[in-house]
């Protein structure tokens, strides 16, 4: 039976080997610092991390499904090492522990029996925390719950413990000092302020030039608001930018680029010229010449962001999963995902799970036979969810693309720009409208790690 520790509490260890593990929703690394009585490492060999997974008596054990653990052979720890400190570092240094549930650190014996458990609460803005330490006391080994957040950054943490960081980034070059501006002798005439500092038509008379200048061009009404004859403006004492249109006049049409995505015109599919979709844009699933598509392939892809850290470069494995959810008049009737690779009616097929996002091109592919989709199914929504809880801030080049399966030619592509603090993404949907199928790019974030958590949040995407 495990013992729950609070911050500062300790407990005895009567086993020869222990395993320190961490449970955390966000992507993170576990490392160890082996320190002497002065709180410093003896050399860089006493720092155990992903690029140096073995130290004296301590080994980093990979975990394909999550965060690696630390195996500590107490008899193998050198006699002059008094503490083995377990450190949790978030992969995303710009994030913090306050954005997810509190991490839990566990100490188990070699057989996997949990001896101690410590919920590290109270963390807010920190991205690094010394979780706990295994330490000597009067010839015996004990464990202590530490929970000390570190605000100085990872490099500062390890250098404070005596680790040398040879490949730390060089400091930025000093900012050139600008030559001092020449001193202008005082003049009996005060200079006229620049025009861009003067409120239009409200300049006090003592600052105004003898002849009032014409109002700047940026105060004129935009060109698309002017007809052949400029509209009459109110008297000069009322600034033009306070003018409101009368309710009997139709307001001018806004520029096209300001239209909401849902009002964008539908685009046509042209062979050999893939359409680059924007958020909310729709495509009628007809080929050039008006022939309806029958077999489509939805390819979804992403790349994990490569980390260039102080101790080497690596790429975190980001396990994203593509799913297709089938709806009939707002009701979920079927799901095609890694746990069910073919929908019950056989119209949608998942071509296999990608666990890392490595490689070029599509990472996961869904095949949809539009002719076999049951008549009562009105919408198929495509989602991508993060199985391990990584957010899309740690993913780059996320995209979905529509491919004509009969010719294997790309017809349309939608690429997400920038990361989002979500664990799921609604990428696109195909839906019936007026007797034909259409595709709509969506690109909206949700908090979901699998299709089951995504489904209750998709109702708002079912309306065309």
TrEMBL record:
Which stretches does UniProt call biased (Low complexity)? 238-250
Q: Where is the composition biased (Pro residues)?
A: 169-185, 207-219, 228-237
Q: Where is this region: Disordered?
A: 165-275
Q: Which residues cross the membrane?
A: none
Q: Which domain of life is it from?
A: Bacteria
Q: Tell me where in this chain the TerD domain is found.
A: 1-161, 275-448
Q: What is this protein called?
A: TerD domain-containing protein
């Amino acid at each position: 039976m495990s013992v729950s520790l609070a911050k500062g509490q300790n407990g005895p260890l009567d086993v020869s080997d222990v395993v320190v593990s961490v449970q955390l929703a966000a992507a993170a690394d576990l490392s160890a610092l082996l320190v002497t009585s002065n709180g410093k490492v003896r050399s860089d060999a006493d720092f155990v991390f992903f690029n140096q997974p073995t130290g004296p008596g301590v080994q980093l054990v990979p975990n394909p499904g999550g965060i690696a653990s630390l195996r500590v052979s107490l008899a193998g720890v050198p006699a002059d090492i008094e503490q083995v400190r377990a450190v949790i570092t978030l992969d995303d240094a710009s994030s913090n522990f306050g954005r997810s549930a509190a991490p839990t650190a566990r100490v188990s014996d070699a057989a996997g029996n949990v001896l101690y458990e410590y919920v590290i609460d109270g963390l807010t803005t920190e991205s690094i925390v010394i979780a706990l330490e295994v330490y000597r006391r009067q010839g015996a080994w004990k464990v202590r719950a530490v929970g000390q957040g570190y605000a100085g950054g990872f490099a500062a943490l390890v250098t404070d413990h005596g680790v040398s960081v040879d490949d730390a980034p060089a400091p930025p070059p000093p900012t050139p000092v600008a030559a001092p501006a020449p001193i202008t002798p005082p003049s009996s005439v005060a200079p006229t302020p620049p025009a861009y500092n003067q409120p239009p038509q409200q300049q006090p008379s003592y600052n105004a030039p003898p002849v009032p200048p014409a109002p700047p061009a940026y105060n004129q009404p935009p060109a698309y608001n002017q007809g052949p004859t400029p509209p009459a403006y109110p008297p000069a004492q009322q600034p033009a930018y306070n003018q409101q249109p009368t309710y009997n006049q139709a307001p001018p049409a806004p520029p096209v680029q300001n239209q909401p995505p849902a009002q964008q015109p539908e685009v046509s599919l042209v062979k050999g010229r893939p359409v680059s979709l924007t958020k909310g844009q729709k495509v009628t699933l007809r080929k050039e010449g008006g022939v309806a598509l029958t077999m489509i392939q939805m390819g979804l892809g992403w790349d994990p962001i490569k980390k260039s850290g102080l101790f080497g470069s690596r790429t975190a494995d980001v396990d994203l999963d593509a799913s297709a959810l089938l709806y009939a008049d707002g009701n979920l009737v079927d799901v095609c995902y890694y746990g069910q690779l073919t929908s019950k009616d056989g119209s949608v097929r998942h071509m296999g799970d990608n666990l890392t996002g490595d490689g070029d091109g599509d990472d996961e592919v869904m095949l949809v036979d539009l002719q076999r989709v049951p008549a009562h199914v009105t919408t198929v929504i495509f989602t991508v969810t993060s199985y391990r809880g990584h957010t899309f801030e740690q993913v780059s080049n996320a995209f979905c693309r529509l491919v004509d399966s009969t010719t294997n030619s790309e017809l349309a592509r939608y690429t997400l720009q920038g990361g989002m603090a979500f664990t799921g993404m609604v990428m696109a949907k195909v839906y019936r409208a007026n007797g034909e199928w259409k595709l709509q790019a969506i690109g909206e974030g949700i908090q979901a790690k699998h299709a089951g958590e995504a489904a209750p949040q998709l109702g708002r995407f079912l309306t065309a």
